[in-house]
Sequence to fold (601 residues):
Amino acid sequence: MDGAAYVTPDGRSIGDVVMEMRNITLRFGGVTAIRDISFDIREGEIRAIIGPNGAGKSSMLNVINGFYHPQEGEVWFRGAKRGPMKPHAIARQGIARTFQNIALFSGMSTLDNIMTGRFTKMKSGLLAQAIWKGRAEREEVENREIVEKVIDFLEIQAIRKTPVGRLPYGLQKRVELGRALAAEPKLLLLDEPMAGMNVEEKEDMSRFILDVNDEFGTTIALIEHDMGVVMDISDRVVVMDYGAKIGDGTPDEVRNSQAVIDAYLGVAHD
Amino acid sequence: MGPQFFYTIEVILNGLMAGVMYALVALGFVLIFKSSGIFNYAQGVMALFAAQTLVGIQTGLVPFSHLINAVFGTDLHHFGWEIPSVLAILATTLVMIGFAWLVVRLVLKPLAGQEPIILFMATIGLAYFMEGFGDLMWGSDIKKLDVGLPQGGNIGIEESTSFLGGEEFYGFYIDNLDIWAAVIATLLVVALVVFSQYTKVGRALRAVADDHQAALSVGINLETIWVIIWSVAGFVALVAGIMWGAKLGVQFSLSLIALKALPVLMLGGFTSIPGAIVGGLIIGVGEKLFEFSIGPLIGGATENWFAYVLALVFLVFRPQGLFGEKIIERV
Fold:
């Protein structure tokens, strides 16, 4: 399975496996949030994880980015098995994310928020920064340029200096995406990027997600509630229900799967 | 204008100077509270410990000499050298950084994610531990702290302003040490603000203050940031310890200046650096003016309680302080 390029039914070719979850089980005390789930994410694809409320989607994202550590199973990232790592170390490996309930630094400006996304790319020492000379200064300028590109890309030039706490919801979501993008991630995790948005904002966000994938070739794993949007933008979909995987495949395959239909619409018990 | 007017101005000036000293202590509290939500009860004791260590290093005291002498029957007291103030301050700074690292490793890390009240209690424990540890290390006698800061009234200011109020006015009396404290505190605050606004680590500090999870997700190591914050708070404690120690001598009561920082924080807000400064100045000026104008009518010594009463009034009308974030809880 590894190595061979995978071709989607619509003819797009996607690359090698970047991340592989093998038999992941996650428990909180007596509650099993994720039960023996395996799936992979391939280079350059948009991979969606969908499922009804409480299916364990966010928990899965938290396992990928290291907020949770599964009791069983293995996580493989770029061909190597990952031991129990701290979230900040995982971010350093190139996994960036956004949050369902926007986790921005609300006291800071849009620019500063997105600059924090460059944290792992900046290497100068504490002392050099304290006097802000030489390398630290050069680094600050270089990274600032990349951040400005992200700002242009997301069309948020007008709010560069605004404290993000004052921005409307849709824009906050966009700034959060910008912070994750600024890290130039190898894998971008989006936790319900369109939750709570109106139709217009959803269309904007879908466009940005597709553009990110298209222009930078960024691999994206996203969780979404809105079935319509997911089916439109993703290459492959994992479906979860009550912590278990009940479907995995292209949007069309998933849409026609009886198990998925039952989970979403309910089953008649006779 | 009569001399009474100029006396009032003198009182205000001295109040501002005293306010700076309060603000210095409050600043240490704000730094730690903002970044980790911990009310660090040990901040005052940190100032005492820093001052003790500074004097100890400067005058070449043998650490733990009482303990060593008791166990081995030796008679050690001094190494017999004196170290220049600047070097001693540098060495003490290093000690405070080491202390910050130990606190994060041994106290904060094991307690990460616990309720704020638990962390608060941990800092109470820390305060008592440090108090005893400092005494054990350097002895509990009152020490004189002299890092070469000038003390006593500033003659220049006094002479150049003596013409203002006629015969009975001799010019403004302002203590040199207070002037130095004001200058150093200003430099310290400006440096802190510039550092936190324009550097990577500064941004990380602000990020951690806003949202721990988001900070982790962009690759910020919370432990490193905590060590930096506690080191900076330790350095601020050292500066406060030097100023207060030079004024009052290095002794146990130094740790109680932390209590004076409480009303400052209630006024300025627990999460605001400008708040700590403005709060300190208001309390400093307020208590001096009150003592000067109302004090004689009610028997004086109002400085002991004025700050707390002012803070109480503030708690009733503006519980988040002047600059603090308003806490709105949804029902």
Q: What stands out?
A: Chain B touches chain A through 24 residues (CB under 8 Å). The longest helix of chain B spans residues 3-36. Chain B has 13 helices and no strands. Residues 76 and 100 of chain B are 29 Å apart (CA to CA).
